[in-house]
Every structure is written in C-alpha cells, then in structure tokens.
Amino acid sequence: MTDQTPIIETVDLTKRYDEFTALDSLSISVHSGQILGFIGPNGAGKTTTIRILVGLLKPTSGSARIAGADCLTESRKIKRLVGYMPDDFGKYNNMRVGEYLDFFGAAYGIGRRQRVVRIDEVLEIAGATYMKDLFVDALSRGMQQRVAIARTLMHDPQVMILDEPANGLDPQARIDMRSMLLRLADMGKTLIVTSHILPELARVCDIVAMITKGRLRAFGTLDEIMRDIQQRRTFEIQLVDHDQVDRVAGLVENWSREMNHSSEVTGAKTESMVRFTTELNDREITPLLTHLVGSGEAIAQFREVPTDLEDAFLSVAGQSHDDDQAKEQITSEQAASEQAAS
Amino acid sequence: MSSAFNPVVQREFFGIVRSPKAFATLLALTITFSIAVLMRWPTDATVDLSGIQSIQVFRVFGYGLLAGVVFLVPAFPATSIVNEKNAGTLALLLNSPLSPLSIYLGKLAGVLLFAMLVLLASLPGAAACYAMGGIDLREGLGLFYFVLLLLVFQYATLGMLISSYVQSADAGVRLTYAVLFALFFLTLVPDAFFPGGSGVMGTIAQWARYLSPVPVVMQIMGQGGLGSRGLMESPGNLQFIIVTLVSSLVFAGITIGRLNYRIFDQSRAKGVITDDRGLTARLLRRFLFIVDPQRRKPGIPWYLNPVMVKEFRCRRFGRSQWLFRLVAVCAVVSMVLTFAAATSVTSWGTETIGGLMVILQVVLIVVMTPSLTSGLISGERDGGGWELLRLTPLSSLKIVRGKLLSVLWTLLLVLMATLPGYLVMIYIQPQMWYQVNLVLVCLAWTVVYTLAASAAIGSLFRYTAVATTVTYVVVMTLFLIPLLVWLGRGAPFGFELVQRVLLINPVGAALSVIETPGFENYDLLPDAWYVAGGFSAFMFLVFGLQVWRLTRPV
Fold first, then answer.
1. What are the sequence ranges of the domains in chain A?
2. How far is CA A225 from the centre of its chain?
3. N or C: which end of chain A has fewer CB within 10 A?
4. How far away is chain A from the Cα of B367, in angstroms, using its nearest Cα?
5. pLDDT of A86-131, one tens digit each?
6. Are B445 and B524 in contact (CB under 8 A)?
7. Sign of the four-CA dihedral A178, A181, A187, A190
8. pLDDT at residue B226 in the model
9. Domain ranges of chain B
10. Which residues in chain B have their CB less than 8 angstroms from residue A116's CB?
11. DSSP state of B174
12. Which of B304, B381, B391, B554 is the best substitution to test chain A (most A C-beta atoms within 10 A)?
C-alpha cells in the first residue's frame, strides 16, 4: 500500500569525479512501503547513488530527499531516517553479536533499557536470535548478513537501503533473505535493494530502476518496463523424437520466410527441442502450430519462454550500449566534419 | 630469469623495491647518512692525527645506521607471511611444487636483498668516515657491518616467525617491534642486577645480555659496553655472534615447520559465556581475569562514550584483562626496583634506580602507545567499521574523544601502577618528594605527547599495518634522537646542543629532575613542558582535522 508523496526522491542527481561522470542526472521517486530494486552492472553508479542518499557523498549537482529531509544539508535527520547496510559487513574483533548491536544502539542514542529489548526484537526479525552470544568475527557470510540487517534495524529507520544483501549467500540463505525483505516491507519499511542476482529482485520488488554508466535506463514496475522494451519473444517447440529436430527447424525457417519475418532458429537434438525468436504477436504465430501439425509432425509442447528481469536488463543494457555507441559515432563524425570545415 | 631461480625471491624482492614505502625508506636513509656525515665533516684545514674527529663522525653515522636497521628492516618480514596468508596467495604457493623451504628462503632472500640495499646506501657515508682516518677497517668498519648483517638476518627471521603466528599485518608489525625492543633493551636489565656472572642467575643474565647488540656496537664505537665495569668489561663479540646466529636459525626452523596447511587451520573459538558456567568456574575466572572477557556484558551506560567502550572491548591489543595483569606486573617491578635500591642489592643509588624506573616507564609508554593508537582510525577504515560509524549520529568530536580516552585511560593506569615504587623512594628519601612530583608531571606529559603523535600520524594512513609501522618509526625516532645526541655529549655535541635536543620530548627533563647520572647538569624545566604542550596541541589538532575530514561527505 503506498501513499501519494514519495518518501525518496532524487532530482537530476549528478556526481562527477574530474572528467568521469559516475552519476548522470538521476531522477527517481519511491513511495512509502515500496521495495525498489536497483539494478546495474559493476561501476554503473548504484553505490554512488546510495552513498549520496545516506549522506556519505556530496552530489556535484541535483538534489536527493528522504521523507522531506535533504540528504546533504540535513544529515543528522537522514541518519535517523535511514538504515544503510553496506556490502562490507564492518566487523569488530572480540565482540559478541549482542555487544555489537548494543554499541550501535548506544551510538544512535537509544537508552540502555530500551536497547536490551530492541536487540532481542531485531535479532528475532532477522532470524538471528541464536547468534546473540557468538563472536561477530566468527560468523559465516549468511549469518553476517542477518546480523547486518539487525544492526540496520536497531534505530527503527523508516527507509532501509541494502547494498547487495544476497551477495555470497547460498540458495537457502537467499530464500530466507527474500522472505525477510518481504517481512520488512510488511512492517511498513521502504526498501532500496541492489543486487546482481536479478531473479531474486524480481520476486520481491515493486519497482525497478535500471542504471548503466551512471544513467537511468528504465524505471517503473517490471510489467511497465517489459512493455516499454522493444524485444523479441522466444518460443520453444518440444518434439517427441530427436530425429524431428532438423526437419522441424527447416519447417519453421521456411514458414518464417514465407511470412516475411526474420526468425533465429536453433535446434537442440539432445533435448528434442527447437527454439526460435520472433517479433510476431500471438495472432500471427498461431498458424505456425497448425502448419507444423499439418506437416505430420508430432508436437509435445509449443510454449513461449517467459521474459524475466534478467532478459529485460540485458535488453536495456544492450540498447543503452547501442545508444552510447551511436552517440559516440555522431560526436566523432561531427568533430571530423568540423575539422574538415575548418 | 632462469627457471632454476627461486620465483618467490624475484616476486618478494621486486615487490618490496617497487613499493613507495621502500623507496621512501632508501631515500630517507641516504639523505640522513649524508647529512650526518656532512654535519661532522671537518671545515678547517687542520689535520687531526688522533683520529678523534673521524671517530665522532663514525659514531653519529653508526648509531644512525643501527637505528635505521632496527626501525626499518623488520617492517617487511613482519607482514610478509601474514599478508600472503590473508590474501590467499600462501595457499597457492603451498599448492605449487615449491617446497616450504624454497618458499621460506625465497621470502627471506627478498627481505635480505632489500636490507642489503639499505646497507649499500650507507656505504658512501662509511667510506667518507674511513677516508678521514683513525678507523680500523677490520675491527671497526668491517666488524660493524658484520654485526649489522647478523642483526638483519636475526630480525628478518624473527619478523617472519611472528608473521606466521599473527592474524593481521598490523599485529605482526606491533608484536615484532615489541619483541625487538625487548631484545634491544630489556635483555640488558638482568645483567645490571646480577653483575659478574657468578651463579645460575648471573650466567643467564650474562647470556641474555648477548642478545642485545648495544654492548657490541658501543665497543666498536670505542665507548665501552653499556654498564661498563672497567677492565672486567667484555662485550662478548663471539658470544653475541653465536647467540644471534643460533636464535636466527631456531626462528627460521620454527617458521619453516609452520609453512603447511595447518597454518590456515585456526577456527575461531566460540568461547563459552562465563555466566552459563558453574559457580566454581565463575569464581575462579573472576579471580584470574578480574575483567572476564567471556562474561555477558551489560549495555553501555549513558554516561560513557560508546566509542571508548567499544575500543576497550574489541581492540586486538590492550584489552582490559591483559591491562590489569600488565598493571600488576608494573607495580611489582617498580616496587622491586626501589626495594633493591633501598636494601643495597646493587651499588646503584636512589637516583640511578629512579632513572631506571623512568626509562622503563618511557619504554612501556613508547612500546604501548603506537600499538594502541596508530590503528584508531586506520583500523576502522581497514575493517569497514568507519563507514558504519559515519552513518551514526555520533559527531566527529565524540568519536575523537572516545578513541583518545580509550588509550589515555590505559596509559594512565600503567603510569599509576608504578606509583608504589615512587612512594617507596619517597619513604627512603623524603627530600625527593618534590622531584618525584616533577617526574610524574613529566611522565604525564610523555603520555600525552606520545598519544598525540601516534594518533595524528596513524590517522594519516589508510591501512593499519602501514600506520603502525610509520607511527613506531616516528615515535621511536622522537625518543631516541635526543638519547643518541646525549650519548655524544661533550664530543661531538656541545652542552648547548644537547640541552636543546633533550627538549624535543619530556623524558630528558624527567631524567634530569631525578638526577640520573649524566642528566643532572641539564636545566630543562619548564621549557620541556611548553615544548611538549605545544607539540601535543598541534598533533591533536591534526588528528581532529583528519577525523573531521574523513567524516564529512566528499
């Protein structure tokens, strides 16, 4: 459930290091209770954005606000509003989990008695109650992530920003992390989550921001992004016998040619499967199945491969790469023509 | 590079030589040697037939070179194995066809080759000293370089041994410097109490003395051994060579024995909480630990700085249970020293004992403070904790206060532990009450001075190991330079110069106030306090600015 005023808002947020632009006019808004999946390859500008939001970095231009507080000028307010879990755990030696959380609680100015109760609460939320007496520096990666979530929750922030929370986790720990994120959203927290493991994000995020080379390439719900992306669909034809593969692949290619559409057709004999990608819509693709059956081929299944976040991201990243190359080419051509003119 | 050549040597040696700190080391040493020789180079055309002038130059040069070797060479072996282990490359090396011996020799050769470069950089200075005449090539210069080579070998093997045991590079640096300090100075103390070498204790004390290079080097410099006893004095060159070689081979043997997969087999003990143990165990642990590290601790109270409490709980060196033990040892040692003076176990007077107590306290402060302080900021940055601290509402002032207080309380505790010794001294000689007061003020200034310097210098570096090494070198230089100049009092350095140089830190003032032999003529108060105050204020300012710079968004 979301209200109308965005709790997180960035407007033309830009960060430059000399000639290098780490973040280029990023404008996004997230409403209360939403989970934003922040996606991008390494060095895309995700961490830069996050560090500006939590007040660790100063933007070159633009602004960022959380719950109405400016991230640069109202850093004390921001520290109370936001819980940030960096990729690096930040362990202290010889400290037990309880002492570790107690220290951060004290640093946030939580009273001693309240802290004792709060430590148990956050450990319970993070599913880490049994770790309370363990040494922080002896925890496994998965355990550290849980303790880090507990630490982030200590001062009960409105907004939680989690940098790669599923990084280095085994499949079971990832599932646990996913349910923990959903639980936090149920508690009314607004979350920004970055991850390289896109299927994980797809399952928990309300909205997605895709960023490459410091620029926002796509922003919205996953469905909106899918609709926006001009992409080809992939179909799979499951055959009964592997001997059919070459024949059916030839039939698909000929049919596509007759229909004046280009298709990329591949056959996998070991799987008795033919795959093809096309830009045809459902109405246009239906005659193909009739054609194959009419040609006497036994078809076990004819299905579309669902497009996921990974495909969408690759499509957006590929598109942005092409755009960048085109821009570079135009720029170099302009420069060449200017040089020739002079 | 031929295939017969140990690849580890190549990587280690070039790895060291390519590092900026190695370049800075060589450059600093070359400049220092040149300045040292130039300072004492004769300016008039008079020929000095006695060779005294050249010996004076040789002393300055020799002690400078010795200090350079002691300070700079151990930093590299001390991090050599632990860095490799933590980076995961030691596992790769152990998995290669190279034997543990080849790996060890490769790493050792890398360090030794670099040390050779350091010694080579000093050769023009040595040649200049020799050219002035009056220095024997074999018994003087040759023997001195041989002693240095032995020391380099011993320190390299010792550093690598320690490096194979510790879990972090800064712990390696810290422990290596502490052990070197003990080898250098503390090995001389037993012989001072059991002179003459009779009996088991006397023999042990005499052999312990051979672990220190100080008597041999002083003999080469024509100053007699430390604690010289006239004709009975024997620096024991041969024994020193034997002890150094044997100890180096033992260090090397143990380290080679540790170079196998068991070196990684160190799981973190979960540590049973004392509160969950039986009553007897709880009582026993309370008695043994005083501050039991395994006890479930109550929350941090509102009146304490959370950063200070965190430092006490999590730092690798100087945690409460060890501090209390150290304080107990300090109290006992200071009492024994003073009691020894009172009961005439030694021929030393109360002044000498007082001087010895001051020196021991200063050694303790100089060894402990850089360890506790240099990693205050770099340790956080190294371990990822700094980012988390920046996210909390703690102001930079509160962080600075918490961090400094955690060290200050520790040092004051150590300082107070030696008070019983001074009380006994006042009891024996009540007229020393005023002097003891002044000495304690000087020592308090020494604590503040060392703390400020270590905190400021350590905060300038990103990595704890580098911060620890540089802080040790700078702090030890600050304390040893005045002592080296004092050793050359009369010749080559005049009274005025020595008095000025002794003002660099408050130790000279403490020694002069308690009338330690050799210091009684210098009038250093209250100027030494002003210098210490000004220097400390400047260093605290640097530290505060650095913390402020690191906490603000950039």
1. 6-228, 233-305
2. 12
3. C
4. 22
5. 988 888 877 889 999 999 999 999 999 999 999 999 999 888 899 9
6. no
7. negative
8. 46
9. 7-263, 311-551
10. 299
11. H
12. B391
